[in-house]
Amino acid sequence: MAAVVADRIETLLRSAFPDAGELRVEDRTGGGDHFQVTVASPRFDGLSLLDQHRLVNEALAEPLRDGTIHELRIKTRGTAT
Amino acid sequence: MSELQDKIKDVIENEPVALFMKGTPQFVMCGNSDRALRALREAGAPVTAVDILPDPAIRAELSELSGWPTIPQVFVKGELVGGADITEELGESGELAAMLEERLGADYRDGAEEHVVDVLSGARA
Fold first, then answer.
1. Average pLDDT in the B112-118 region?
2. What residue in A sits closest to B30 (Cα-Cα)?
3. How far from A50 is each of A2, B28, B74, B75, CA to CA, in Å?
């Protein structure tokens, strides 16, 4: 069950950030509702941290709204050096 | 706009630093709310906290206003800073203190007190 949710999150993030260099979904507690996601994408270049996190929240709007994700930690970065 | 939404808006717009959290600074009910509170305290911010747990409507109305889906939410001078991850990251990099100084003035740490506002009754402690 937990792995199913992680897969769903990863699928949603992959479709929102097809060019992500790094994309990781970790189930922090093994319970399938506390997640840490890490995304590195050129889409974040030049955006504030707030706007970067907004894009991730938007990609995961459905599981956030329906309560599938109880807690979400986000780590984002652009690809510009 | 509902009366509750008015009260939430009032806190966001009129408190220098507003933290919408699960629990209160004295009795934090969630790890992420705790992370945001710690980052704000470390930066010396004058935190005004609102507990969203007493009524699910608080969270619903807040997210409608801010467009941010999760709790906690931190606002400085009426502007959304972000949730726990952003507040923590900005705290670690020193950007949080710089932002507080820029928006609240260089002496923002002086006499910084913590307050709690009950948006259901309007009481402020």
1. 95
2. A71
3. 28, 24, 11, 12
